[in-house]
Amino acid sequence: MDPYALKTLNAERRARRAAILVTDLGDGRDRIVREGDQVAGDLGVAIDRAFRTGNSGSVEAEGRTFFLNAHLPQPRLVVVGAVHISQALAPMARIAGYPVEIIDPRTAFATPDRFPDVALSAEWPEDVLTRQPLDSYTALAAVTHDPKIDDFALKAALDANCFYVGALGSRKTHAKRVERLLALGASADQIARIHAPIGLDIGAASPAEIAVAILAQTIHAFRSRGLESKGAVA
């Protein structure tokens, strides 16, 4: 590998940004393509697919053979609210390959006994997310139903372009949330990205069922990144 390409790739990985090392198997030349870079033709289609799936492999394009070595940050799930839904969601998400962190300043809820083997921060989201910023490979689910706890985290998730942002509550509750987020400086386009009511509409009623709906919606959001602008997502 070209030393400059390796240096660039390592810098992208440290910053939790996706990149693909594209190697022309005919002449051995390689280059780094960052997520969002425009690449035309069949090669561009293959690169877009590799960014969505994280799968590496060889492709034929423009009469040549290329190897795409995909490097994607591991997606993670930050849950604001140490509630019953979170207790069900944390082990499910871990099985699906999404490391989970629970944030809730209410120390009666955010306890190791209720969340064994889960990264737990019994602090305000403002403090945690300043120290550990969100990014585009993070999903955020706000489930406390308390604006004092949820709103800052939601605004931070929108500003960080998290790939998934969901919030618990009815449509009436969300309408009031929208007003508050606008007052905090969020744009209407940003707010439109929030999934509220949270989770896929599967008729979920119990905390465990709501957790399933949230995880399914999170996975769908991750695997369909970038397709919305191309009109390919129903």
From TrEMBL:
It comes from the Bacteria. Pfam families: XdhC_C (PF13478). Residues 77-217 form the XdhC Rossmann domain. Gene3D superfamilies: NAD(P)-binding Rossmann-like Domain (3.40.50.720). This is XdhC Rossmann domain-containing protein.
